[in-house]
Amino acid sequence: MAFSLPKNSPLLKKDFTYGVATAAFQIEGATNLDGRCESIWDRFCRTPGKVLNDDHGDIACDHYHRVEQDLDLIQSLGVDAYRFSIAWPRIEPSPDTWNEAGFAFYERIINGLIERGIKPYLTLYHWDLPQYLEEKGGWINRETAYRFAVYAQKVVARFGDRVTAYATFNEPWCSAFLGYRFGNHAPGLQSDRLGFQAAHHLLLAHGLALPALREYAPNAEHGIVLNFTPNYPLTDSKQDQQAASFADEEHSHWFLQPLLTGSYPKSIIEQHPEWVPTQLDEDLVIIARDIDFLGINFYTRQVVSASDQEDYNIISPQVDGSMQLTDIGWEVFPQALTELLQGFKKRYSNLPPIIITENGAADNTSPNENGEVIDSMRVAYYNDHLNALHNAIESGVNISGYFAWSLMDNFEWAEGYSQRFGIVYVDYETQKRTIKHSGYCWQEFLNKRGKD
Ligand code: FCB
Question: What's the mean pLDDT in 33-38?
């Protein structure tokens, strides 16, 4: 068996959903075709020094022109589901203009998946905001949240229950904090205040979109995808432990707590009143509307220690040479996935069913002389994280699905094409796809499920 799990593991049952994931901007290319407008990522890529090697998404994996072939590829892996995102710039290329070519493109994907027996998992927003909305302040502008709700309604009105699950947002932490607070993602602003304001508007947009999702797709599941990098203390000292828990409040619970309980974490508000976003009283009620699933993206952990000057010091991944790192420099620490899930179950009595919507590793192994890609590090990573998930399920956490990031190598945001996360290798010169060893392991694992 390619991946080895305890016999009778719930992860081996046929009703556990497995899939592969991608995002529009990372794979589609064809950025100027069929009426698509510019997105903040097109602009960011064109801004010198923002993206490694000035890479951009103009061609990417040329998925726009290779949909049928890519759908066949997905089917050949034996997955139950495919998670992809819709490019808002294709659907609404200028305010209130609804572009049929955009809808038609995603309709082909959805229908093509269904024909192949694969469940469509649709993400409405995976970071590619139309640039014309950024001109008006992007996610700092409250109006963007209302614009998102209209866009969401148009999409769900078209696709309805053909889609198995709708996620409003992928990783609002990244959109808000990397985009407006730390500046390493589009649009590249650097302000704590604006980062928290953007985060609030993203969560608000999520809540505002939910009623239309429920109305037009009453039989689909609706949720949101958050990313978590749990913080671990450098030592057992009380100070380091406090530093780690503060960092978790700031980066994890600041996003999850309002969604589940309608309030922001107190410790952060007390420590940093200047971060608290401008908001209306009813916003948190909207944000905390019921969801059917919580998508979790997990890759790594972070080690922190107490600091005299800052809230905490970020130590990892350079603690010592013993840490195993993937090619992007993220530590491999699967136990953090188990502990994260257990911690959430303990803290939130209304934790919805969880889907692991992304998990994977950057393993940049190239094809060998026979053209094979033997990405053993990635195979080990998947194996270890599936086992970590098994442990979480055994301890009572409700988890119903797992998506490998990613179907194929693609545009890795600020890292350009330098980091390869695919279980399928993409030769960007020829656009040839080659299933990697990890892809074959998935294939074997998925085909054998439920048969032992
Ligand atoms: C996540 C993103 C995804 C991909 C992986 C490696 O943060 O959602 O698009 O880039 O990281």
Answer: 98
Would you say residue 2 lies in a domain?
no
Question: Does residue 5 lie within any of the structural domains?
Answer: no
| pLDDT tens sequence across 156-193 | 999 999 999 999 999 999 999 999 999 999 999 999 99
Any ligand 1 atom below 6 A from CB of 27: no
Tell whether the torsion through CA atoms of 9, 12, 17 and 23 is positive or negative.
positive
Ligand 1 centre distance from Cα of residue 8 (Å)? 31
Between the CA of 229 and the centroid of ligand 1 the distance, in Å, is 12
Whether residue 235 is contained in a domain is answered as yes
CA separation for the pair 404, 22 (Å, rounded):
9
421 CB near ligand 1 (under 6 Å): yes
Helix, strand, or coil here: 384? helix
Q: What is the pLDDT of residues 345-378, one digit of tens each?
A: 999 999 999 999 999 999 999 999 999 999 999 9
* pTM for this prediction: 0.98
> Is 174 touching ligand 1 by the criterion CB < 6 Å?
yes
Model confidence over 408-427: pLDDT tens digits?
A: 999 999 999 999 999 999 99
Listed residue (328, 412, 411) closest to 377, CA to CA: 328
For residue 234, give its domain range: 10-448
- For residue 22, how far is its CA from the centre of ligand 1 (angstroms)? 9
Averaged pLDDT, 16-21: 98
* Closest by Cα among 290, 296, 260 to 83: 296
Ligand 1 pocket: which of 174, 358, 410 to mutate (most atoms within 8 A of CB): 358
